[in-house]
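Entry for the shared binder. Reason: the reviewer on the internal report wants the predicted structure included alongside the sequence.
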Amino acid sequence: MLLPIAGIVFLTCVLLWHAAQFYPFISDDALISMRYAQRLVDGEGLTWSNGLPVEGYSNLLWTLLLSFSGFLGIDLVFAARTMGVVCIGLIPVLLLYAMRRDTTVEKLVTLALLALFPLNASAAAWAIGGLEMPLTALLLVMALVLLDGGIEKACVDRRIALHSGLLLGFASINRPDGLLFPVAIVMVLLGFKIFRKLESRFIDLFLVVAIPLLFAAGQMVFRFVYYAELLPNTAYVKLSFSRFHMGIGWDYVLQGISVQWPFWILVAAAFGLLFVRRDRAAVLFIVPVLAWFGYVTVAGGDYAPAFRLLLPAVAMGMLPLLKAGRVLAAAPLWSRRPITGLSALILLCVAAYPVFYVVQHESYDIVRAREEVWEWDGKILAETLHAAFHGRDPFIAVTAAGCIPYWSGFRSIDMLGLNDRHIAHRRPRSRGFGPVGHELGDARYVLDQKPDMIILNVGDSSSQYREYEDTMRTQAFRNEYVAVSIAAKQAERKKFTVWMRRESPRIGIKKWADSLRIPGYFLRPLYSENDSIRQGIGAQAVFLDRNGVLVQPLQVGQRLAYAFPGESYLILGIRLTGNNVSHVMATRDGERLVLQSTDGDAMIEHIVLQVSRNTMQAN
């Protein structure tokens, strides 16, 4: 009893240590699921934003578990991380428990092999990455352990079929593509039955796939009733089945295997050993793994780092590895020379573990997960915007559909279509030749929605998406939107560019019959007498003052200006709000208003202009 407990503690420590190497990594897609979960907790339904409901998540079970955590008052990021660590941590514990009747030598070999799982970079990264793959991997391993026990006895009875079917059913609503696993598994079981290698009844074997099909059908009915769709919105965005995407998917699978080559060499050797021994479980394990590799290839791989989609295959690969380890543990070396065998095992582990760790962490995709923190930059921007505008209910357009909508809470439109039905159903000619899940867009449609703010990525000044980049270069767009550089606080080095709509009734210029109010963030620096007003990209940043208001700093000797696109307004008076406002002088220079501080720095919240004769003075 002491050895399994010590083994569990050891494996848990390895997992926590390895996962800490990726902290604070969190996936933006995970924050999309949290957005749905939080809105469900808030009574807004299983929706991403107001308006037509759209199923922009692909992990119903995971999202519902997050919602349950939210109802209990648990922070959703913490809940997602905790669930991920628990699921990944339970997999080796479950496998160790399944072999509880083994000899001490077999347990030692099993423990040495089990350490490869928490040392796997995909497992460690996605333990804290916030998405559903750890739960999918756990459900698969549990189902396969049950079925393997039945195959060893040459009888998968109704109890085993029912329990494994339920586990696979939950996996099928945790990910829609999770239905692939029970289909692959039942084909293996039926093959065993046909060739008289199982004494099970056909009806019992069909339970393994019938229950997941019922789960999937139930979700489809819910989807049709609630979202008026038969497929999730994510399927329309991510799946195109083009030869180009298949090539990317094939490279993704090969690269994932090559990055983790020590593990997969051992798994391949384990499969070979089990086939030589005519162990039927080898077929049970290898068919779902190969089927999943095939699906990932056809789907075009994944945009997320650390080979997220390969995690179920890694988890399933542990099963033949452990069975082969038990075979090797029964070799004469252990019974005749246990000290020699144990010493060889220790030396092998000391040599193999560091190699396995190092070769993974030299991979770009693994390094990307360790260094990816842009979601937390998105949190800073989102919370800054929330503090400044939360009472005005702004409508924002985003390409990072997780971090900014989740942490701001604002009504949003997803410019890449994952959470937008119109864009998801769009079929441009270039579809199938761009990055998976990031190739759709409709700039005209987005602008027709008149969002108050447009945020590219997490406040970049330009877009990596061609359609939006081309649109934002047009003069028509720049007449309607102004690029505002924002910092969370004064002297903050990190700046974000947000395109704000001039005529927005919530955050833009306020117009009355004889006056208008211009927010300070629409003012622009002038650097010379003949300088044209810049668009704001790279200009000084506005920031939140202590009252949670976005203010524009104005230093002594500096000049700020606002350009009027026409001459419909004649300026009589200006009222400035901020520190030292009495020392700010305003002048008219053609079609632009110029502000200049004469004594001391100022922070400008807004200016009020009154329409009258061709005269102007500062109040």
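Summary line for the report: The longest helix spans residues 202-227.
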